[in-house]
Write a structure and sequence with these properties.
alpha/beta, 7 helices, single chain, globular
């Protein structure tokens, strides 16, 4: 079964930022690498599920015309809303995915530190919905802790193979460290053509 909502509610009840996302150099470095892995200079509309306190949201807002960040825990949504209040392009909502999947399409979907909480069936649905919502040529980014945790149903390495097998996606970048796995995928066009690399998009190759 997926990790129950009570686990997250208990974590945020004990601390406004239970994973210290706004304090740790490890987290800041990982977020910087996540944003650096994005192949496009600018994105039209991004979706960031499990945004927590909005630390990564702040960085995504620098590259996106619009960011929809969401989390299932009300206190996390409140904190992220407060921290991004000065950014008109950011909207933060309380949503439980995949049941409450937002409407519309996106050219960027960021799944950071969230997929290992889902059981296999729910994981499949999340990835299916994320891919379906992603515009052709759009970007899907996944980043996940790679050490065993009792509440995590798999590791970053294990997730990497699952995401890479999703139809319609092309692996663009694969960054692996002892601590986490970061992958960037592009949505193929309806005729199956892969997205252009950054160099190809600028006519360098």
């Amino acid at each position: 079964m997926s990790t129950p909502s009570s686990y997250f509610e208990d974590m945020y009840r004990e601390s406004a930022d239970p994973w210290h996302l706004a304090e740790r150099w490890y987290e800041r470095r990982k977020y910087d690498l996540t944003v650096a892995s994005l192949p496009h200079r600018r994105y039209r509309r991004a979706l960031e599920p499990a945004c927590s306190v909005g630390e990564l949201t702040l960085l995504l807002a620098e590259r996106c015309d619009e960011v929809l960040a969401c989390d299932r825990v009300a206190s996390a949504v409140s904190t992220a809303t407060s921290r991004t209040a000065h950014l008109p392009q950011v909207t933060v909502r309380q949503l439980t995915l995949p049941q409450e999947w937002p409407t519309g399409s996106f050219d960027l979907v960021v799944l950071s530190e969230v997929l290992y909480y889902f059981d296999p069936d729910t994981l499949d649905e999340v990835l299916r919905r994320a891919t379906a919502a992603l515009e052709p040529g759009g970007t899907l980014v996944t980043a996940h802790w790679n050490h065993p945790v009792p509440e995590h149903l798999c590791t970053g390495d294990e997730l990497a193979g699952v995401v890479a097998s999703v139809p319609g996606l092309t692996l663009l970048a694969d960054h692996r460290e002892d601590d986490f796995v970061l992958q960037t995928f592009g949505r193929r066009s309806p005729d199956g053509a892969p997205p252009l690399s950054p160099a190809a998009a600028e006519g360098l190759v």
